[in-house]
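re the bet — no i am not wrong, look at it urself. input seq straight from the record:
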Amino acid sequence: MNYFLGGDHPVTDAEIETTLREMLCGKGLKKILLLPPDITRLNSYGGVISNMIYKLLPDCEVDVMPALGSHVKMTREEAARMYGDIPYERFIEHRWREDVVKLGEVPADYVKEVSEGYMDAAIDVEVNKRLLDKSYDLILSIGQVVPHEVVGMANYLKNVFVGCGGASMINYSHYLGALYGMERMMGRDHSPVHKVFDYAYEHYLQEIPLTFILTVTSPVDGKTQVDAVSIGSQRDTFEKAVAVSQKRNLDILDKPIKKAVVYLDPDEFRTTWVGNKSIYRTRMAIDDGGELIVLAPGVHGCGEDPINDVLIRRHGYIGREGVFAAVKSDPELQENLGVAAHLIHGSSEGRFRITYAAGGLTKEEVESLNFSYMDCDEALKKYDITKLKNGYNTVDGEEIFFISNPALGLWAFKDRFYA
């Protein structure tokens, strides 16, 4: 079951549906489980594909378990926007603290080897118990391949071991990536984190009926264009999609950006946990002494999980060395290393200024996170997103670089990226 669409041309809905029909129909499927991305990956096209599958199999029992990771459960309204008319009753919440089963572990010596000594700890391999339910004839993991701060290139096994995984893998994989260095990984495959996932898949999940449907998308004329769809069960399925994403989702710049302005769609970005993609994905593009302005009308909190929210607010985005000290002194942070990693990711390490214009956070809250504050209404008035184009613009006589959705790419100054 291997298919590859696009790569050299945009993929149409008709092409996707024809492929899914050939792949799924007439196969005697009685019950399947879909693992699509959640609302924070609104532009992944995973929702559209999930809806296609549901409608192609009217006589099959289709369960949908969004790969939430530690994110909050999707509301009925969000599910309708993301997945169309799939009944809300078909959706299952992944509860990452309660519903997981331990399959084994990635040994400490292997973790130490692939991390070049940055981490020396065994990592539990945990997945949602439904992946082990033998009543499913097929499990389809649906996700978007795009440069990513934790793993280098999302999706593939991240959708399973983080999106549908437990606390140990979520925390340790995030912290491993932060220790190794996100700038060494973003936009590249075969990171230490992916090697951990590869080990876990090879040793513990070979017996389940798992197939990957991987998309590559990009923004074109204000809409989501599907650049590729790669389907299969082995790693080359991912690698084919990575090759396309590296062409479509990497914006390598000839000069560093002095001032970047990034917009966060309120339907997609509600917390700094997700909204800080504005920082992760631009940090290699912004010049020393430059500024990043985050237009975040929908951001009203910090963590997608209540415990994570408390820890983020407690420490703020204090940079690598500050986080290391906080981990040593705060037992709760030691138990939630994914938050520690996130606090590293969300800092500029003092290299450039980060100004947050959050619609749902006060000036005191923003500044306590170690960001500068700007009133959201004033910021949206000055930086009118209906008039700005992606890339360089001039606002009040000043050159700015505008990004309409940081989730769809990676921006980097060439000297810093290739270094």
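see?? The chain has two domains: 3-248, 251-418. told u. also The chain has a mean pLDDT of 96. so pay up
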